[in-house]
Amino acid sequence: MSYDKVKQANHLIVGTKQATRMVELGKAEEVIIAKDADPRITTKMVNLCKKMGVKVTYVDSMKMLGKACGIEVGAAMAAVVNEG
């Protein structure tokens, strides 16, 4: 998984609450999680993704993920969402 893929995603939902919602609604095709994010947050998401059959990809840091998502702060996770 390269950060380029994050930048090229049509529709990216950044943040734990929104990403969780997209997975629950079956709209997420992939979730990107920062390895240095709080495990209490990421463990729930990984389990939810397993249950829902959503691919999980890890990236090195929250700072890099945030930057790839076009925000100034770090991001624990982001969801790539299907359009339509």
From TrEMBL:
Name of the protein: 50S ribosomal protein L7ae-like protein
Pfam families: Ribosomal_L7Ae (PF01248)
InterPro entries associated with the record: Ribosomal_eL30-like_sf, Ribosomal_eL8/eL30/eS12/Gad45
Record-linked SUPFAM superfamilies: L30e-like
Organism domain of life: Bacteria
Residue ranges occupied by any Ribosomal protein eL8/eL30/eS12/Gadd45 domain in the UniProt entry: 5-84
